[in-house]
Specification:
elongated
């Protein structure tokens, strides 16, 4: 008789408990968006489980009738977990973006999939995964009729920080493209020195830069004071977006921290796409990253839509 490993049973039990908690929190979040932050911590392990190999393995064992009859396993239902993750993604989208932002996001989503497929290097033929499909589904507002097959779809948690008041962030003046003299003067500047140079050119204060990048004050202060010598790529990209840098200036800024945009990184390509489109809404970028199974940039902070 075939015996299911103990660790597999324990994994299913753990995911089932997490799934039950997520269902309760999701229902609460429908009427209280503040619960989204708590829900995020519960959703993330479920998404990793579903997008990885374990869910499919457990699902196949269930389909073959090998799991104990008394084992509670709603998390393995064909539609249950998928629908939960989709509704959470939709709730983020509805809550964080205003109607104009939603329309812009849908428009950007239409080209984003092709951009990733055309530019992502060192990928297998079935390059996209379940999260990539979510973005396209949101734009089309449809749900696949059957189960998804793997071949058919080839630092902090997102939105985990406290909310901030959009009124604190002043409108930013657009800077003129840098001249050759400006570029030469900036050659010897460190990462943060260049950040402040760009901020000064745009009339932004340190606090405004920190908030636009969705960074908490402590992390930003460490960068400013030099306690943290170089930022993570997620932080560096968030600062580039906050400063509304073009692609050349973004590459320049990243290089000061020993970083570079990689054509092998889906996260980098998504951020690069939004920069090329001059779409500098960090909420929107982080939703796109979430939809594609990528980690957010910045501290995960999000601003609530003003009409919510």
């Amino acid at each position: 008789m075939f015996e299911i490993p103990y660790d597999q049973i324990e994994r299913i039990r753990k995911m089932e408990s997490t799934y039950d908690t997520a269902l309760v929190l999701l229902e609460q979040a429908e009427s209280d968006p503040a619960v989204l932050q708590e829900l995020q911590n519960v959703i993330e392990p479920l998404r990793e489980y579903y997008d990885g190999l374990y869910w499919m393995s457990d699902f196949e064992e269930d389909e073959a009738g090998r799991l104990p009859a008394d084992l509670k396993r709603g998390v393995l239902s064909e539609d249950g977990l998928y629908d939960l993750l989709e509704r959470y993604s939709e709730l983020l989208w509805e809550t964080i973006l205003d109607p104009d932002g939603q329309a812009q996001y849908e428009s950007l989503c239409e080209d984003l999939e092709d951009y990733i497929l055309e530019n992502l290097e060192d990928r297998p033929e079935a390059a996209t995964d379940r999260p990539v499909l979510k973005c396209a589904l949101r734009s089309a507002r449809i749900r696949p009729s059957g189960p998804l097959e793997e071949a058919d779809i080839a630092e902090e948690g997102i939105f985990a920080a406290p909310l901030w008041d959009a009124e604190d962030a002043a409108p930013m003046m657009l800077a003129e493209p840098r001249s050759l003299d400006d570029a030469i003067r900036n050659l010897d500047k460190s990462f943060m020195e260049l950040v402040f140079s760009f901020a000064d050119a745009r009339g932004l204060t340190d606090v405004e830069v920190q908030k636009r990048a969705h960074l908490d004050r402590k992390a930003f202060s460490k960068l400013k004071c030099g306690t943290t010598k170089n930022p993570s790529k997620a932080t560096a990209l968030a600062l580039a977006v906050a400063l509304e840098l073009n692609l050349d200036d973004t590459r320049d800024l990243l290089s000061r921290a020993g970083l570079a945009l990689s054509p092998c990184s889906k996260q980098d390509l998504i951020v690069q796409y939004f920069i090329e489109k001059e779409a500098y809404d960090l909420n929107m970028i982080n939703i796109a990253l979430y939809d594609h199974g990528e980690q957010p940039i910045g501290g995960g902070l999000f601003e609530m839509s003003p009409d919510k």
